[in-house]
Amino acid sequence: MTERSLREPTFLILTALAAGAQHGYGIMTDVAQISGGRVRLGAGTLYAALNRLTTERLVEVDREEIVDARLRRYYRLTPHGAQRLAAEVERLRRSTAVAAGPKAASSNRLFATRSCSVSAMARGCSWISFNMKCW
To answer: Which pLDDT belongs to residue 98?
Structure first.
């Protein structure tokens, strides 16, 4: 059975966590940056998504700390989450190749400048305009 495609906010949250554990505000700012400011998650939307992703075992709590008398919870991508993100990247890559047609696909203009494996995602990858870029 083929898994359904990820919704864009979910994809962006998983992408933000591919670089390592982050707290909610860090995730929100990364999502805005990755999307070029197009997607801005509110706190309620983000934490509802993180709860769902935790239930689906795509993310998990990394640690908690108290900062200015407030609990700060850090989340990280699970191995299953990294695999799911990599599968979605590949699905989008194939769809983009079909949409671009044979001429564009053969010139590799819409393909990643550098391919990121699941292990490379842990070093930090970002999905920007259908191009996988590793930093």
So the answer is: 87
